[in-house]
Amino acid sequence: MQRKKNIYTIIKSMESKQHIENWPLWEVFIRARQGLDHKHAGSLYAADAQMAIENARDVYTRRNEGISIWVVESTFIHASNPSESELLFDPANDKIYRHPSFYPLPDELKNI
Amino acid sequence: MPLNEQEIFDQKIEQEIRIEPRDWMPDDYRKMLIRQMSQHAHSEIVGMLPEGNWITRAPTLRRKAILIAKVQDEAGHGLYIYSATETLGISREETIQQLHAGKAKYSSVFNYPTLSWADIGAIGWLVDGAAIMNQVPLCRASYGPYARAMIRICKEESFHQRQGFDILLTLSRGSDAQKAMCQDAINRWWWPSLMMFGPNDEASHNSTRSIQWKIKRFTNEELRQKFVDVCAEQVNVLAMHLPDKDLRWNELKGHYDYGPIDWEEFRNVVNGNGPCNSERLESIKKAHADGAWVREAASAHAAKKKYLHNNKIHGVQTAY
User: Fold this and answer.
1) If you ran DSSP here, which 8-state letter would residue B17 be given?
2) Measured between CB atoms, does B8 come within 8 Å of chain A?
3) Considering only Cβ atoms within 10 Å of each terminal Cβ, which end of chain B, N or C, has fewer?
4) B304: nearest Cα among A75, A108, A25, A4
């Protein structure tokens, strides 16, 4: 009984501070069909993960656009910096030998 | 010499490379997008009201289910654009507060009342039709999140227009009273729909800017003309007419001529004096206030679950 009362008091105090402006933003990822990746669909606000999934269903899959939904709080997503993207992706620029078309082979060579 | 930020931005616009949220962009570009996108999002949300008005009175269960789905779509469209707007650095809270405070604008067409069931048809055909005309080119807008939201919206919007035409078509084949209802709705919605494209561009500095930045692709006039050309033909399928005595095919231009638009009325409605301006705003604010307890309950529930989870307390969830 004592424990229940404590929880209730704590929740009450949290409740007064928690309004919609504190709801986290969630990023929504949707798998359109079996065999495909989950793909970013958009974002929405929700109080918790379950609400985020249910709202994502209503916002992003009203026309059978998905068979599976992932949600993740936006704050957990880390992104590369666009102003540094040149530097970041530079190592791939001078390695054209990674592409099959780098190797000119005779026409008579088949099935390769 | 390496390009500065402005030059990199200009080059991207020039080469049709989309601008993404974390890319550098000029302040005025950001401001213009925030203004246009938040107005657009508000229009989707306020646009639910004139149609929501008829959900309980739809003539059949089938029509009711369709109308509910359409109004739900509009809510979804508002949400897509609100989240896209947020990527520009303005909070959802602030955007919505601007609407509630009457500071932000929304499409003035939603300040007209829906007097009969035929209005739901006319809104789908004409208002959504005009919206589609505007929105299709926005799928190529230079700002990535806006363009992506528009692609999603355009896919869904075409159902809206077709269901509207379907309502009018049914009425146009009905009794004399139904035919009269159909014509009356077209008469009332035609001119407000033409006004949706906004005043002529020569008068608008914003419009020129927007086209340079490739947010807009066509002038207001071009889009309006395209809309008139399409509707002037479609109305014949209904065996109805558009309420414009100057409407006629111009062989030389290859377009329909149409009569002058009453911009005085437009300005009047934009400035808050339309038939339903205050009613719309009050409804939006009331809905927000009435939903407060739901938001609070959801927050409390989330807080409780988090607390129980963090403290590894199981089996007391149903205690209160």
Assistant:
1) P
2) no
3) N
4) A4
Inter-chain contact A47–B80, Cβ cutoff 8 Å?
no
Terminal Cα-to-Cα distance of chain A (whole angstroms): 74
Written as six digits, the tokens of B187 are 């008469």
How much is the ipTM here? 0.86
CB–CB of A62 and B313 under 8 A? no
- The alpha-carbon gap from B69 to the nearest alpha carbon of chain A, in Å, equals 9
Tokens representing B239 are 């065996």
Helix axes B27-46, B92-100, angle to 10 degrees: 60
pLDDT of chain B, 320 residues: tens digit per residue: 778 999 999 999 999 999 999 999 999 999 999 999 999 999 999 999 999 999 999 999 999 999 999 999 999 999 999 999 999 999 999 999 999 999 999 999 999 999 999 999 999 999 999 999 999 999 999 999 999 999 999 999 989 999 999 999 999 999 999 999 999 999 999 999 999 999 887 767 778 889 999 999 999 999 999 999 999 999 999 999 999 999 999 999 999 999 999 999 999 999 989 999 999 999 999 999 999 999 999 999 999 988 988 888 765 554 44
pTM for this prediction: 0.89
Test the A interface: residue of B79, B90, B311, B318 with most A CBs within 10 Å: B79
